[in-house]
Amino acid sequence: MKIRKTIVASQIMLLFSPWSAQLASAQDGSGVTELETIYVTPAEQVKQSLGASEVRAKDIDRQGVTNDLSEIIRKQPGVNLTGNSTSGQRGNNRQIEIRGMGPENTLILVDGKPVRSRNSVRYSRRNERDTRGDSNWVPAEMVQSIEVYRGPAAARYGDGAAGGVVNIITKKKFDAFSGSVNTYYAAPYHDEEGDTKRANFNLMTPLGGNFGLRVYGSYNKTDADAWYINLLHNRSEDGSLPSTITAGREGVKNRDGNVLLRWSPAARQTLDLEFSNSRQENIYAGDAQISQGTVDAIAKGGGQFDLTDLIGQNSNTMTRNVYSLTYNGSWDNVSNTTYVQYENTRNNRYDEGLSGLAEGAISGDRSRITSRLNNLDIMSETTVNFRSPFAHSLTLGLGYTQARLHDMNIVKQQVLDPDDIGDRSPDYKTKLFSLTLEDNIILENGLTITPGVFYERHNVIGSSLNPSLNVWYALNDEVTLKAGVARAYKSPNIYQLDPDYRMYSQGFGCWGGTGPCYVRGNEDLEAEKSLNSEIGLEYKSERILTNLTFFNNDYKNKVEPGIQSEGKFGSLYEYQYYNVPRAIVRGLESTFNVRLTDRLSWDNNATYMIKSKNRDTGEALSTTPKFTLNSILAWDITDRLNANVMVTWYGKQKSRTLDSRGEPYLGEDRDPYALLSVSGTFRVSKHLNLRAGVNNVFDKQLYRSGAGANTYNEPGRLLWAGASVSF
């Protein structure tokens, strides 16, 4: 197939500029330039979506990451950090949320392979986990780029991607001997906030015989906030201290190690054998699932919830071991990527209560409990390029996922229903088979169409078929209309499915105030599904990239604790997890990036949440700012010196409207606030880079109160510096 050099051809080249090197031109006798066939796989095409953005290694280096990559990912369009509900439980353990769909609907990948360690953490009555999520398993200095996909662009990644996908791509170089040693230190302006120390190394080298090796190791420690950080700032008008204390941010120690051996047996063929070991130890700051009374003893002394001996100590440790084998190969018109990954997570922590006020409170005997989660993932994608009847790239994917969880929390809560006494097991297993078929079609009239269909079969909840369609149309050389629609899905987690798992409440946690009750897992649940759609315009010229996107997620079957009793046994009511009939998330995203001069660039993105609502209860799905603006001004002062000014503005965050019984909750909203940060990098020599910065220059501190939307701490001014020695 040949394409004449017309305005259509230039539009196509503009649309796919990252792959424009594939275009080879020649002139026929008439002087008309002809172009070779263009092939773009569906996986590459999704990167051109409105719901796709990228964080580069130089962005991480210039802006700085204190401990968790979520700190910089949150600055992408449509992304925030929040909990999985509006309860405020575990308020400072905020995770990546995309387009208001909650952290559980964000799929984290490392080099395209899933990370699911957080699923080993017990699921609470209000749908929260005591976890920081899965964005902190790779040291910042080892990241080549981070791809963020939202809405229809994320649907191709399957189960768990209804909100979006974060793909962390690590650095790999095997053609020459290289490496680096990196250090980082962050000092908060306020003594009651924890400081951070980090050091890591990496080594990449050819070994001969078509082999290559990559090794890296890292240690990172962030101290916990002082236990009293929120105490003085939550005094009543008469100056009296609160009867309960909400904890500040817990600390964490990260230890990461990785070995990757690559074999390249032939041209365009690679086989990677990889092992990684990571360990995250928390530094306890006094947090508990329900704040009432849990750390009261610290201020007043004594009591059944006395946690004084735990402050500053380790109360939970997460260990993740990953073994993977990955094949990448391409031939004339066929390419294939196949991987097998085994992920083992050990979640060791102090035992917690599962009923009433004690849910999430560390037990007085300080016993430990270990849950083990084993995930097996097998995936193979094959793409074939066709020339007739038109140029297109067809991708067939096959996948298998198996999860095995062993957790004594499943059977720890006593059975209170006399008709439900029997054998209960702490073990539960799920299996998921998936099949995907996608085609990417680039037509001569500036139109690109990518249809897809995704089939999944879950051993408990059954089958579902989920179609998608993305369309790009070049209106002229600079303006493109982009639209997409896809049905995304998420299987219920093991705690929601397993009928042996239940949580008891004496009444405060029972919907409608019915009295003593328990919530149990439900194997009759359906998969959560979201019809994700977006439409927008993008303008792209040599110096300007801007777009405006409207997105709408019509969310069905969201899994929540039941609000209708399934029966009554004496005075005890039984509830189960159930599927919420409908919820809706709707908003706008916009990007405006401009290169002001050859050395000065200004990048901006904004997100406006029009609606986020559980239509069954009227509650928002999570506590998300109404409006978020990120703005970065980057100045390459010289070839060796760079300076950056960054501003983030968060709009009002609304309080939850209902308490755990479904009764009106009168909590405070969190008012809008803005943060200004500055940073710079200086390349001293070919082998030495220095960087430094000040976060939150104007020292805007916010304190957690546990009431309404004030569920997390916003740390004050922080000074940081780092150095990198490369060879």
From TrEMBL:
Record-linked Pfam families: Plug (PF07715), TonB_dep_Rec_b-barrel (PF00593)
Keywords recorded for this protein, A-Z: Cell outer membrane, Membrane, Receptor, Signal, TonB box, Transmembrane, Transmembrane beta strand, Transport
Compartment(s) where it occurs, according to its Swiss-Prot or TrEMBL record: Cell outer membrane
Residue window of motif TonB C-terminal box: 710-727
GO MF annotations in UniProt: colicin transmembrane transporter activity; enterobactin transmembrane transporter activity; siderophore uptake transmembrane transporter activity
TM helices/strands, residue ranges: none
Domain TonB-dependent receptor plug: residue ranges: 52-165
Membrane topology: Multi-pass membrane protein
Domain TonB-dependent receptor-like beta-barrel residues, every copy: 275-697
Gene Ontology CC, one term: cell outer membrane
Swiss-Prot/TrEMBL GO biological process terms: siderophore transmembrane transport
Signal peptide region: 1-21
Protein family (similarity comment): Belongs to the TonB-dependent receptor family.
Listed name of the protein: Outer membrane receptor for ferrienterochelin and colicins
Gene source species: Pollutimonas bauzanensis
